[in-house]
User: Fold this.
Amino acid sequence: MMRETSTRQDSRIVELPGFAGSNPLGFLAALGTAVTLHRGGHVQIRLAWRRQFDWIAVLTDVPFANSDALINVLSEELRGRPISSESEARRKSAEKAFNAAKQQLAKKRKEIRKRFSGMERRAAMDRELPVLSLEVERLRDAWRAALADAVARPELALGKSVDCTPDEYRDHARSLLTSSSVYRRETVDLLAAFASDASVEKNGRVVPTPFCFIRGSGHQYFLDTVRQLMQQVAADRLRRTLFEPWGYEDEGLSLRWDPVEAHQYALMDRDPGPIGAHTQWMANLLAYRALVLFSSAPARGKLLTTAWGEVGEESVFTWPIWDKPLTLDGIRSLLQMPELFSPAPDRAVVRSRGLEALFRARRIKIGEGANFKINFSPAGAV
Assistant:
């Protein structure tokens, strides 16, 4: 049931007890709910937090008469554009061909390394690999073209993950500028959150946002997981996520932003592989939409992302809790506060900014070898 009160005839306050502010996934999902409703045209809606068993999310200035209307708007926005079965079939076929070509190239490279050494190995690679490499590039382009026609949101045409060259990233951003404006900029804001073409890893690929926890381990990928989550949007799932305690009844398709999942994984007696730990699908999808508020930019020789900092050798995510309703612009300003980047925030300064609390979670690695997972640690107040 949607818990609501009315402060005046045209303004409702709706509590979302499913979103706990001390949980990074709960915090991000609450922001993503506001972002999604804003994208649906309801720009007057504001977000705050109310202290109960935890800090729970509260929407104000809600124009909907009941929870069904609220969920219908969220569902429509979260599903994105419809994808035909023909487009999906072409995507699968193109991806299969691309993966087969990559495997063939890797197999040939391994074979040459076994057969030759030194200068002979280099000569064999120069002789036998270029044709295969060109075929891989051709099939990658064909797959990306098919993918662009089979994704419900345009930024997902970037690929399975944020794993491309600066030129590819720049070209994709340019292709989206023509359909963007001051009032419709969510897609380009997401690209600004994902990476920067001016921050590049040693392998020549752009450095992804620290929110990118899944990069291929267990055959799970960041953007591909989002694509699949969009296919799972259902009113009953949204209702449970917004208004009920989370039951973690969904398997796999997790962005790994809930510390509970790290605990689940640590207690397993084997690698869960593509199934993964149990999660809350709609919370993950809503949280993904919040990334428009967490832009990234190159600085000091690395990629810096809103609300992320370092404490010692660890990357940490710090987020604020406030009890006065804020617009998205107000929230965006709060997320840029210097205190979020400080190893030891000054509590007096935090309170003077109108904040009730700051929470912080570490980006941690669980497991060893190639099968490790990235998760958030349980959050603590700072």
Notes: The first strand starts at residue 3 and ends at 8. DSSP finds twelve helices and 13 strands in the chain.
